[in-house]
Prior knowledge:
The complex is a heterodimer of chains A (295) and B (359). Chain A has helices spanning 2-9, 11-40, 60-67, 69-103, 106-117, 124-135, 140-148, 162-185, 189-197, 202-230, 234-239, 247-257, 261-285, 290-294. Chain A is globular, with a radius of gyration of 24 Å. Chain A is built from 14 helices and no strands. In chain A, helix 1 (2-9) packs antiparallel against helix 2, helix 4 (69-103) packs across helix 10 and helix 6 crosses helix 8. The two termini of chain A are 23 Å apart. By secondary structure, chain B is an alpha+beta fold. In chain B, 24% of the residues lie in helices and 35% in strands. Chain B contains 8 helices and 19 strands. Chain B is globular and about 75 Å long. At the A-B interface, helix 9 and helix 10 of A face strand 6, helix 2 and helix 4 of B. The complex binds adenosine-5'-diphosphate and magnesium ion. Magnesium ion (MG) is lined by residues 43-44, 83, 159 of chain B.
Amino acid sequence: MFNQLKARFGSGLAVGVIGMIAIWIIAMVVLPQLLMVDYSFRPNLLPADIGGPKDVYSLVNYQTLFTNKIHLEIFFKTIWSSVLVTGLTLIVSYPIAFYLAKVATPQKAALCLVLLIIPFWINEILRTFAWYIILAYKGPLNALLLWLGFIHRPIRFLSGDGGVLIGMVYAYILFMIFPIYNAIESLDTNQIKAARNLGAGWIRTHWRVVIPHAKPGIATGCIMTFMLAAGSYAVPSILGSPGSRWFTQIIYNWFFEGGDWNQGAAYAFLLLVICIGFIALVMRVFKVGLGDIAK
Amino acid sequence: MDSSVHLDNVVMQFGEFTAIQKTDLQIESGEFFSFLGPSGCGKTTILNMISGFLEPTHGDVKIGGQSMRGVPANKRPTSMIFQNLALFPLMTVAENIEFGLEVRGVSKAERKKASDRLLELVALDGSGSKKVTELSGGQRQRIAIARALAVEPRVLLLDEPLSALDLKLRQHMRAELKDIQRKTGITFIYITHDQGEALTMSDRVGVMSAGRLQQVADPITLYRDPHTSFVASFVGENNGIEGKVLSLNNGMAEMDCGQLGRLQGRVHNTVKAGDQATLFIRPEHFRLQAEDNMLTIPSKIEEVNFEGAYLTLNANTAATKLAIQLGAHQFSESLVAGADISLSYKVEDAIILGAAEYV
Ligand SMILES: Nc1ncnc2c1ncn2[C@@H]1O[C@H](COP(=O)(O)OP(=O)(O)O)[C@@H](O)[C@H]1O
Ligand SMILES: [Mg+2]
C-alpha cells in the first residue's frame, strides 16, 4: 500500500496518510481495547492506591462471575436467549429472503426491500419504544387479538422474555435477510426446477438444494444476529422485565453504577470470548469455514 | 404404457404477450419428437408447460391421455434435461443420479444399484464418488442424462442439451441419445435451434416460429416439401427468388420473376394467380447442363469453394445471389470466378410458397 501511495503522491504524502491511518487504528481501536484488557486483570482501587503495592495483576475479576450465581445464570440465559433470537430471526427471514430472491418479480422485490429498509432509518430506541407501545398490556396488539376472539384476556407480553425476543427479532432481521437473500439470489433457478422435476416436494427442495447453497449466507446472518443479540443493550432495557435481564445490563451496571471498570471490563471480555468460542463451535458442527463467510 | 403427449389446443400468454399461439399436437408414445426454431420462438415455454413449471393459459396438456391440469411439476411423469444441465454442484455424481430415487424413498442399496447401472449406460462406470465439478462438459452431459433417466420417466424433455458441447462431441452425443431412446422406448421431446440435430435424430420435427407451429413432419418431408416460406428457408439451405404468380396448372405454377423471366415450380393450393410468392430451389438441385423439363437461369460465378466431396459456388444473377452445390465430379477448369454459366433446375425440384401460410 505504501508503495502504491508513494508512486502516486510521492513519499511525503504517503508517509502522512499511512501515519494518520496508523494513529487512527492504534489510538482509537487498539489502545482502548488494550487498556480494557489491562483494566480487567487489575483490582478496583482508590486513585491513591493505583500503582501502589496492591495494584497487582490477577484473575480475580474473571473469577467473580463464576462465584456469583445470579450473574452466571444471567450470563448463560443471555447466550441461550441470543441463540433463540437467532433461530427465530432465521425462521422469519428465510422465507422472506427466498421470496425476494426467487419468487417475486424484480419490481416487487425492489419494493419489498425498500419497505423493509425504511423503518430502519428510524433510531433503534424509537423503534423499540414503538414495540413497547404495541406490546403493552392495554396496547393495540392485545386489543386486536381480543377483538378477533383469539384470546379472552390480554397477554402480558412484556413481563417475560417474549417482548425482548420479539423486539430483537425485529431489530436484527435485516442482518439476517440480506446475507441469505444474496446467497439464494446466486442460486441458478434451474437447480430448483431440476429438484422439482425429479419429484422433490418443496421441503426437500429447500433442504437438499437451496439451503446447502445458501449455507454461507445463513451462517453470516446467524453470526451477525447472534453477536448483536448477545451484545444488545437497548432492546432488553426497554422491552425487558426484571426477570429477563441481559448480561450487557450487568456489565453496564459494573461500569456506571458500581463504578468498577475493572470488573466490568472482565465481564465484557468473558462475554466476547464465550460468544466467539460458541460461534466457532457451531461453525464446526455445521461445517462452515471462515472462507465461506468471507465470500 | 401410454406415454403419448397431447398438447390440446394450448395457448400460453405472459400478460399481454402471447408466447405460444393456439397449438394442437399429438406426440406418440415412444416417439423422438423435436421442436425446431430460432431462439425466443417459445420452445422452452412448451417444455415448461409439459413439465408443469407453467400452466397453459388455455387448453390442456395430456400425458398418456390424462389431463395434467393442476398436477404439480414434482408429480408429473416427465423428466427434464436442462439447457445448462443444472446438476447439483454440492452433491457427488452418484448423489445427483440418485436424487430422484431418494425423493421416492428408495432404499440406499437399491439406489446404489440403480446409479451403477445408469453410470454404465452412459459409459461412466466408477465415477459415482466424483464431484460434478471434476467432470468434463461431455461427462456432465451424460450425468444429466443418467439423472433424468433414473426416475424412469415416461417422457424425457431435452432443452438444447448439446448446445454447450463442441462439434465432435455433439455429433457423438446425438448418436448416443438416439441409442438411449431406442433402448429405453421413452418418449423424447427434444428442443433445438440446430436443424441438423433435429433432422438426424427425430422421428418427427415441429418447426416453430414466433410462438406458432409452422409444420410438423418427418425430416425427409420437411426437407423436400416445406409448407411455409419460413420452413423452406430455416430447414436446410435454400435459394429464394421473389416474384408474382402468373398461372396455376395441375400443381405447377408459373411465376414472373422480373429480370429472371418466367420460372416454374411445384405449388400448394393456397397460392393464387396474382399473389406475391417465393420460388425456392435448394443448392444441390442446380445442374450445369440442361436436360428435358429443366429451366435455366443465366448467372456469373462470384466464388468457387472446393470442399472435397463437393464444391460450392456463389453466383450472381440479374436479380439475386444464388448458392449452388455440385458433386466434385462436375468440377472443371472453366468454373472460375467471373465465368458465365447457366444454372438449370428440374421444375419439380423447385417449390413456390406464398407469404400466406399453408396448413
Ligand atoms: N416467464 C416469462 N414471462 C414473460 N415472458 C416470457 C417468460 N418466459 C418466456 N417468455 C418469453 O416468451 C418467448 C419465448 O421464450 P422461450 O420459450 O424461452 O424461447 P426459446 O426457448 O425458444 O428460446 C420469449 O420472447 C420470452 O421472452
Ligand atoms: Mg430456450
